[in-house]
Design brief:
2 domains; alpha+beta; Helix Hairpins; 9 helices; 258 residues; Ubiquitin-like (UB roll)
Length: 258
Amino acid sequence: MVVDEIVARLDWGKSPLMPAIVQDSSSKEVLMLAFMDKQALTLTLESGYMHYFSRSKNRIWKKGERSGHTQKVESIALDCDNDALLFIITQVGAACHTGHKSCFFTTLDSSSTILESQTSPESTFLTALKSSPLESTFAPSSPNDPSQVYGIQAYDIMDTLYHTLLERKGAPESSSYTASLYAKGVNGFGKKIIEEAGEVVLALKDKDSAQIVYECADLLYHILVGLAYYNIHPEQVLAELQRRFGLSGLEEKAQRKA
C-alpha cells in the first residue's frame, strides 16, 4: 500500500491531528502518546522514522532531531475506527523529554493520588530546578563548558525548562519559587520581568560580560514563566524571529500596521 493510500485511509474528518501511540519493540512498554497531521504521517512513512506535529511548538518535528533519541518504525497498526495509530518502534535513548525511557512514569491510584513517580539518572536538571534557588539552578556545571548544564545539552534547556514550568503551574505555592510566581499571577511575574530587565541594563552599562550573561539568564527565565503561563512554547518566539529575518525594521513595522 503506497503512502498516499495509507494516509487517505485514516478518518481525518474528526480532527486534523491523529493520536499516535508508541510502543517499544523489545520491551513492549508504551513509551509515549503524541499527535500527527497528514504531513507528519507522510514523513514518517517515507523516512521510516517517527515525525509528529507539536501542538506547543506549532510545527512538525522529527523525534530526536536535536537529542539524537530517534524512533525507527518497525510496524504500524490502525484501530477499528480509523482514528488512532499504534507504532512499534526501536527507541534510541529516552523517549521522554525528562530523560525517562517512557513518558508514563507516574503511577496513580483510583483517586488520582500519585503513588510512585520514578526518577531518572538523566533528569538531574529537573531535580535541581525543583529543589534549588534560581541562582544555583542555572549555574553552569563547569565555567569552561557553557554548552552543558546538569548533563543536558544547551539546545535542550529551553524545551526542558518550558515543560518543567508547565508542571509548576498546578503546584502548591510553597513548593517552589516558580510555583509562588504563578500563584501571584501576571502582575507578580510581570513585575519580576521588569525588574530583571532593569538588572540587564545595569549590567550592560557596567560592561561586565559575566554579569550580563547572568542577568540575561534571569530575565529569560522569568519571560519563560510568562510564556508557559499562556502555554506558548519558546520555539514559537524563535519562529517569529526567523520570520522577521531578512526584513528591515521599517518593513516589519509596516506589516504590523497592515
